[in-house]
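no rush on this but wanted to send it before i forget. theres a chain ive been looking at and ive put its sequence and its fold in token form underneath. i want to understand how the tokens follow from the sequence so walk me through it. thanks a lot i owe you, the record is right below:
>
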Amino acid sequence: MLNPLRPAALVLAAALALTGCGADVTSQADGKHRTSEADRHYPVTVENCGEKKTYDKAPRRVVTNDTGITEIMFALGLEDHMAGYVMPDDKGDLTSVPWKDGYTKTKWLSKERINKELVLDARADLVFAGWNYGFNEGEGFTPAELERVGIDSYLLSESCRNGQGKARGVMPPLEALYTDLRNLGKIFDVEDRADTLITSFREEVADARAKAAKGGDRLRVFLYDDGKDKPLTSGAYAGPHDIITKAGGDHIMKDLKDSWTTVGWETVVDRDPEVIVINDYGDTTADEKRKFLKSYKPLAGVSAIVNDRIVVLDYVDLVESPRNPAAISSLAEDLRKFAR
């Protein structure tokens, strides 16, 4: 579903190629200059999910969990600061990803769940993950547990808990992405790269929004992740909300103050989506999900099913990741086509 590289992305890729990987961008012969520059930058303090964290130097052995989180590091050119990444055997469509070379430069530590033993074996000094994006009290893998063994953590901002039990999300989805880019730019002393990415992403989103439908002309859109008894979907704080809204759609679950959560099918039917976006990931294929939606009798009269308006996006397009702006552009094209 991702579109070919746009000019902004090409410029961005060229800029990253010129700066190279890692935080050291001065000559190798100029060691004293690099040291003095780093000394002036650190310590730095950022706010991550409501907690202030101070770094005396850039982490050197980061372990990331999941595709979107890993690609945030790749987009910032931080492969040299990584011990490796953990993710299933599915990176989505890499065709138009400017930072796809990161996968060949960085060690794939595991295709299974991230755990304390794995990050200890990797000699990690920081784990970049999130609540339900690796961190989980039920499995005993938490920032607090890592702190006890001397490993720092950075939480994905999309996954911040919002004080309502285990509900997640404290800011609009794209702002979560920009917040993490700014914070990591500061932590790793690559703020110029972070600013370049954010500017490029804002321009791409603005272009899609300028072409999108306005007000009452917006098509009602439902995000279907998975589930038959109850569908797993996106609330206001997960990536699909901004992707749908900024692409020109009316996100029918925008009133859910959570990120990823379940709802009842009766709510979906009552809100009558005109377009359904399928999240392509997991053991159930996108085609299988499509077949289920089209054969599930309670949905037979829903406009999206009647008119066969079903769109598929990759998992990494829809969770917080640097692919979000391109997903907005891609969905915007689909919505304009459906609205004709």
